[in-house]
Amino acid sequence: MKRILLRIAVVAFLPLVLACQKSTTSPEKPRPVRTVTVAPADGRETLTQTGDIQPRRQTDLSFQIDGRLARRMVEVGSVVTKGQALAVLDDGLVQNEVRASEADLTSATSALELAKSSLARQEQLFVGQSVSQQQIDEARASVRTASARRDVAAAASLNAKKKLGYTQLFAPEAGIVTAVGANQGQVVNPGQMVARLATLERDAVFDVAERIIANAPADAEVRVHLVSNPDVSAIGTVREVSPQADPTTRTYRVRIDLPSPPRQMSLGAAVIGKVELPEERLVSLPASAITSEANAPAVYVVDLATKKLVRRAVRVSRFTGERALVASGLEAGDVVVTAGVSKLRPEQTVALADLDGGAR
After folding, report:
1. Which of 26, 183, 190, 222 has its CA 20 to 30 A from that of 11?
2. What range(s) does the Multidrug resistance protein MdtA-like barrel-sandwich hybrid domain occupy (predicted)?
């Protein structure tokens, strides 16, 4: 009997407990958020980068043979013309090689002439049956041997004369000497840098971030001016973009061709390059408004009718400082959350915060 009464009491009390729990569970309060109303605008952005002036090419010039440097006719900063002599080796040993090779060639030529004369006499005697066929064959073999030796001596003589030409170092093109690697009296090895020649053509060189590479048109004109004097400027075009980013800075090396730069733009001068991007209709948002959806940029848009959040994918054209320029995904009048997006979720109810901290 007691058990039955206890069960009746529990059954009667259970609805009261559930009612109390429901009464104590309050609905989630709307989360205050800061927002901005979308207003697309046509704009043209100017990208700016700092770089320096560098030669189009730099070549390390060296001798093809070893020897003692007899004279160096240029110094750092010397302006040279194509074909101008830059340095000379002591050619005494090479001159001896030339004379020895010429003597060998004379001796081999004389031996060949003697062998040919001997063959002619042997052939005349062979007509009169005075010599055998074997002697004729031996004479002809002597001529071939002498001819081969003469060819070897001629090649050696030619190589010695060319080697004599290697004792002088000439400029392959006009340029400026930017470094020297050997002094008079020093013994240099083949391939050792004696002078470094920079071409007169100059490039403006910049280390550019990937986002600028992606946004700047390939055929854009670049205005370059000196950091020390903005009035000294030149117009150039992109000549070369490094295909691989620097492993340390993650930037790309870009070379701007300057067809006729001012004289003040000397090698090593610090310059600033500017390029204007094509005009497009963009939405400027604080960078803090950008979140992600499926590894793609997105923003939270407030549905003004329900005051709930909608996560919407967008395409960000580029970032500038603390701003994100959105190219697509938003319409005029959309209300976008600008802060605290990492703690929000879709369908969450929010309250629009006023600038003074209130909510509506």
Report:
1. 26
2. 58-194
